[in-house]
What we know:
With 719 residues, this protein is of the alpha+beta class. Among the domains are: 2-298, Beta-galactosidase, Chain A, domain 5, CATH 2.70.98; 615-718, Immunoglobulin-like (Sandwich), CATH 2.60.40.1180. The protein contains 13 helices and 35 strands. The strands form 6 sheets. Strands 5, 6, 7, 8, 10, 11, 13, 14, 18 and 19 form a 10-stranded antiparallel β-sheet that branches. It has an 8-stranded parallel β-sheet with strand order 27-26-25-22-21-20-29-28. Strand 30 and strand 31 (626-632) form a beta hairpin. The longest helix has 23 residues, at 590-612. Mean pLDDT is 97; it is low at 1-7.
Amino acid sequence: xxxxxxxxxxxxxxxxxxxxxxxxxxxxxxxxxxxxxxxxxxxxxxxxxxxxxxxxxxxxxxxxxxxxxxxxxxxxxxxxxxxxxxxxxxxxxxxxxxxxxxxxxxxxxxxxxxxxxxxxxxxxxxxxxxxxxxxxxxxxxxxxxxxxxxxxxxxxxxxxxxxxxxxxxxxxxxxxxxxxxxxxxxxxxxxxxxxxxxxxxxxxxxxxxxxxxxxxxxxxxxxxxxxxxxxxxxxxxxxxxxxxxxxxxxxxxxxxxxxxxxxxxxxxxxxxxxxxxxxxxxxxxxxxxxxxxxxxxxxxxxxxxxxxxxxxxxxxxxxxxxxxxxxxxxxxxxxxxxxxxxxxxxxxxxxxxxxxxxxxxxxxxxxxxxxxxxxxxxxxxxxxxxxxxxxxxxxxxxxxxxxxxxxxxxxxxxxxxxxxxxxxxxxxxxxxxxxxxxxxxxxxxxxxxxxxxxxxxxxxxxxxxxxxxxxxxxxxxxxxxxxxxxxxxxxxxxxxxxxxxxxxxxxxxxxxxxxxxxxxxxxxxxxxxxxxxxxxxxxxxxxxxxxxxxxxxxxxxxxxxxxxxxxxxxxxxxxxxxxxxxxxxxxxxxxxxxxxxxxxxxxxxxxxxxxxxxxxxxxxxxxxxxxxxxxxxxxxxxxxxxxxxxxxxxxxxxxxxxxxxxxxxxxxxxxxxxxxxxxxxxxxxxxxxxxxxxxxxxxxxxxxxxxxxxxxxxxxxxx
Length: 719
Ligand code: DGJ
């Protein structure tokens, strides 16, 4: 055998860089046709130099030859957490995946799709890895597709979407946990050797305790504006599993995908199994840089109507709960107009007759108007709304059923429950079996029938309050282990049908709060409900954390009576997203009402920059007494800065100026306090002119303190 020089070895490798404006993700195929991750980070000036990257690392040896595999197979040479594990038709559990070919397709000026075909040399099984890269946004979506032509079924025991591999001196994971009213609680720790798993097994409302979003900083926890950090999230609304394995070489393997918990998947010969995309971005300019990348990608490509507009609204959930009738709703429609928002949103409680929906114990599943509450039906209410000059939207929770309902009695086989065990409830309800096409039809028709009743229906709030206990599907029969996957596929099929017929009607993704916020679902929804916790102090923290991953236009924020803050504070916080109200308008004092009306006008002026501008986090409520967030338009000429007191100890406030960000140092700016409460005056001199340079280096003081606990400032370029 001829001895190969180092140069020969490189010559035989195939290096495949995926470059975006700032970053590169680089794959390399070696002589054995193993495909490896060799780099993920800032792009190099000369793409020809990527192939030299592996040689400059002098870490421990690789016992497997595929420690940095681009899609780690198991049962052959691998010794680490695999991306894929299968049982072949003959019962053998080994898999090896070798590179066959790759293809790069430019989909447009911004988006390219790389596909890499891998095959097992022994078994007739192939995997295609897909990398969809968004050049300007610096985002990659990665997924895989698995097929085989074996004589019999192959069982997929594990089937990840993505397998990344990072090198750094240390790795710092920022992850989230939560519960009802406590969504998006962050924790940041250094990863130690072994595997750290982020996962959920809840089935629906799957992110209740843990969403799939996370960030990994390299070498030290990234700051807001400095440091290297990778953001990741799985585009899947069901069980997910993300393994972060620090290996013997001190490198980090990240394997993300659908959770294989209770889910071995039987794959027939010739059938394709496609995994959901794992989306990620990298920034060497801190967490702020990464979040702006992800936000702009979401607006441009993922969130439904991300570049569009949204409706302000009055919701009746907290003002009436289940207790309303036509005359009460007529008053609320008038209040909607009086308040000055675009739409009235009718919440839970409007349906069911045999077991009326007067509390959360009954009626769910029976989507006919309750004759006592709405004798003239939805159509009448929608007409009333039209007469009052407001739009009309409605709440549904179509995936769920109360045992006390006509639907449960008629179709017990549509309900997820164990045939031989006691039922166990979450909010007194059970989940319908969306893996069953007949249930998919039913859910689709729940939505469709609303549009038949009100063709002008302007909005749907799609709730999902229960998790899955006793996972068992009558429809799946002998394929129970496919149920969790097929449930979510069924949900997406319904949403596809809804969107095929109603492509642009705004829909809120709600899950008794934020239990289901993910980009798998958000491609069908215009916005999400971050939390039932609308205490504005809590919301500052919750919205702050969501904002790392989701743009403000997607965040439905309602002004309610939660918390002790005045209505101005509550409204200012709700303005950092998509503004709504859920208060008793008729009980507002004249000043509060005047303030709210004025705030809606102010909001209408600011919303383009809040929704489409670049977001900068200026002052972190977890570190300072004042929280401050800024939105600035891409031209760097107009924006808004929201500032809140979060520490109520004596004398606390904005003692130091707050450094603004994202401005043009050469431009001149004027800052003006807006959204003032009637009868109050601003302490800010709005005639002063500052350079962008001054505002970014020295800063601006919004004068937040006791008595001025919430300050909204508009910034405009002066020409
Ligand atoms: C949970 C939601 O988060 C609330 O806003 C409300 O719609 C209730 N469900 C209704 O049951």
